[in-house]
Amino acid sequence: MKSLVVVGAGRHGRVVAETALSTQGYAVVGFADEEPAKHGLDLGRWKVLGHWRDTVADEYVVGIGSNPIRRRIYESLVAEGRQLATIASDRASVSADARVGRGSVILAGAVVQSGAVIGENVVVNAGAVIDHDASVGPHAHVGPHSTVESFARVHAGEMVAAATFRPRIESREPLPIVAEDEAIVQSAKAPDSAPAVQLTGRGQDAHMAPTVGTRLGPFGPGHHRIRLSIPHMCGEELDRVREAFTTNWLSTVGPNLTALEERFTNLLGRPSLAIASGTAGLHLALRLVGVGPGDEVVSPTLTFVASCNPILYEGARPVFLDSDRSSWNLDPQRFAEFVRLRARAGRLPKAVVVVHLFGQPADMDPVLATCREYGIAVVEDAAEALGALYRGRLVGTLGDIGVFSFNGNKVITATSGGLLVAPGQEAIRRARHWSTQACDPDPLRNYLHSEIGYNYRMSNVLAGIALGQLEVLDLRVQQRRAVFERYRSAFADLPGFEPQPEARYGTKDQGPGTKDEGPASLHTRWLSCFLVDETRFGMSAADLIRWLEAANVESRPVWKPMHTQPLYRGYECVGGAVAEDLNQRGICLPSSSSLSEAEQAFVIERVRAAHFR
């Protein structure tokens, strides 16, 4: 019997360890994990021994569901000469003439038929069927109860969700995911009558044929709807949610919550608190920095209403500021001028809420310098920008308090929920106290309350979803940026259709040959946004939204400025013309990280067809 170390001490790793036991060919000696915080943990039957480099075993297997992470660790193990195990549950059915690559794991209930080929480091999840003569490339993941039909080919690194995966033509860029109730259909070539969408950019042409490798069902009215931004699961989430149900940790405490806060504390370098929503986080943040009745709080006017409503919760007054056209965020120069005028009048604002809009970091350094000079608190609304960088620093960690959102349309999601981060544990302690109804300590638990509190905690179930999503945060950012780049390239020759610029903070200029003078900034492209010049494009942004809606494509305007909203019309606004222009001319196109090339090609074709229609 061979000794085995499972690399990855998460839920998926534990399932792999149990599967290895069922083969009767391995003795699992424990887990290895790259996170130092997990080293030495007792997980019941096994312990986390340390980093895999510090372990000794006959063979290793990677027990991580995320394809990129699993591939990276697998390749590191191979490079160091470690032997990789191939694990197939005794409750799986694997044909004698199927080929299964080293490092792959076949879970209980899976079926691998005659002539099927499974590459290295593949996960075939519970109940999945790999039909005869199908092939699954290395580092791929076939989700629970999926079917890969005969002669179909799953490309390297792809994720197949609960769906039927059918033969398709080879494509230049493999489809990243096949979602529930959808399939890939075989097409030997694009029909002659099918127009290709020309993608023109920087001296080279490429073509995307919407009819090649398309999903089942046509697009357009009455058919498949292309959404603006939808959740994109990776497979790890279900294991964590299932464990929450199995162990009955279903309320607002539990191991998923603890782990989520620890993971974000390590990622962000600041103590973190999981909460019910980003809006709840902003409310707690304003209270933490001392905002109260009668105080003034500055907010960009170009934002979602959730950035401003918590100001009213505390009885304070919002003051709206216009946008900087180069980033679409709060104009730091106008903010500095406003604060100087307020200082002369002896009525400084208590705080400013800086929003990182659509994943674009705001220009924080000048805002922070102004606030430090005049003693103004800074709250970062990073609800739309988890993963974004400002001069090499993660947004949400630069001001006094930072807030993120896990709403269903964000880069990663828990279906709802959010996160509050602060520089010290005392602020987190106070926010946690308020978020759990501000119940005072009492030996009898007699529910004593000396100040107002709220029901703002996240559940352990939703924290499990967020933990699984956190595994693929970097990948989801890359995928959304790739969606934007495909749009940008496709529309490069289209008059009057300009992309939202990506602010290059810390660089000398933004033209060709730009030289970085400091760490890079990064726009996550949560949404792919463009400005429409009606005169040059031939259609207004509002009409283009209606045009796309008629084709069953969801899009929307850039946020409607707060100073033009009925709720906020009576409040002061400094400037506003830039924000109004961005709203009138701005459009957000479908931006999901799971957006297929066929879906995106259809959107591109519809936008191009609208040009001087």
In short, what is this structure?
The protein is 28% helix and 19% strand. It has 613 residues and is α/β, with parallel strands linked by helices. The strands form nine sheets. Strands 22-30-29-26-25-23-24-36 form an eight-stranded mixed beta sheet, sandwiched between helices. A six-stranded parallel beta sheet has the order 5-8-11-14-17-19, covered by helices on one side. Strands 6-9-12-15-18 form a five-stranded parallel beta sheet, with no helix packed on it.
What fraction of the residues are assigned to beta strands by DSSP?
15-25%
Structural class call reads alpha/beta
According to DSSP, the number of beta strands is: 37
| Average pLDDT level | 88
CA radius of gyration is 26 Å
What is the tally of helical segments? 15
How would you explain this protein's 3D organization?
The chain has 613 residues and is of the alpha/beta class. The protein is 28% helix and 19% strand. The protein has 15 helices and 37 strands. The strands form nine sheets. It has an eight-stranded mixed β-sheet, sandwiched between helices. Helix 8 links the parallel strand 25 and strand 26 (377-381). Helix 7 packs parallel to helix 8. The longest helix is centred in the last third of the chain and has 18 residues, at 473-490. The chain is globular, with a radius of gyration of 26 Å. Mean pLDDT is 88; it is low at 169-217 and 508-516.
